[in-house]
Amino acid sequence: MWHLPGPRAVGRAIYCALSTFGMLHTGPHHAAPPLTGPAPGHPERLCADVPLTPLELRLVRELGVG
């Protein structure tokens, strides 16, 4: 009599296989460097003399980038 693995075991095996296959092409994922904003001279650079709006201040607090 054949013993078939359950759906979770099959799903786990497929996930592991796809993860391994993806790492062959992209390499292991390392922690990303912290965000520092646009590069100097970028057209979306913020003006230093214009204060942030209340919404922008709240977004900076929520994202922890300021």
3D structure, described in words:
The chain is mainly alpha-helical and 66 residues long. Helix content is 45%, strand content 0%. It is built from 2 helices and no strands. It has helices spanning 7-26, 54-63.
Concise synopsis of the structure shown:
With 66 residues, this protein is mainly alpha-helical.
Tell me the helix content.
40-55%
Determine the number of helices (DSSP H or I, runs of at least 4 residues).
2
Strand residue content: under 5%
Ends: how far apart? 64 Å
Q: Which regions contain 5 or more consecutive residues with pLDDT less than 50?
A: none
**How many runs of DSSP E, i.e. beta strands?**
0
Q: Mean pLDDT, rounded to whole units?
A: 79
Using the CA coordinates, give the radius of gyration: 23 Å
Biggest sheet overview? none
Element order: H for helix, E for strand: HH
What coarse outline follows from CA principal-axis ratios?
Answer: elongated
Based on helices, strands and strand pairing, what is the structural class?
A: mainly alpha
Write the layout of secondary structure elements.
Layout lengths: L6 H20 L27 H10 L3
Which structural traits does this protein have?
66 residues, mainly alpha, elongated
